[in-house]
Amino acid sequence: MPRVRSLIETVAIDIAQRAHNCQGNANHRLEAGVKRLKVRKQRSWDHYCMECAKRILEQDVIKLQGLIQEFSST
User: Do 74 and 50 form a contact (C-beta atoms < 8 A)?
Assistant: First the structure.
C-alpha cells in the first residue's frame, strides 16, 4: 500500500536546549529544558512556547475539520 503524505511532517515537540523567546510572542520566554513546538520554515525551524503552540494547533485542527467537511459534502 502506498504511503500517504502527511501535512504535519514538519512539526514536532522537542526540548529547548537554551533559553530564548517564543517566535509567536516575544513576551513569552522559553527556558532551557522546557517543551516547545518546533515548526519547519524553509531551511530552518520556528519555535513556539506551549501556550502559543496550543493556540496554533487548535486553529489548525479547525481548518482541517473544515476541509474534511468540505470533502464529505461533495
Answer: no
| Residue 73, CB-side half-sphere exposure with 13 Å CA sphere | 6
Q: Residue 50: phi, psi to the nearest 5?
A: -65, -30
Cell matching residue 56: 496554533
Separation CA 42–CA 47 (nearest Å): 13
30: number of Cβ within 10 Å: 21
Q: Chunked in runs of 10, what are the mean pLDDT values of the chain (74 residues)?
A: 77 96 97 97 95 96 94 82
Give, in degrees to the nearest 5, the angle at Cα 12 between 39 and 48.
50
Q: Residue 36 CB: number of other CB atoms within 10 A?
A: 22
pLDDT recorded at residue 19: 98
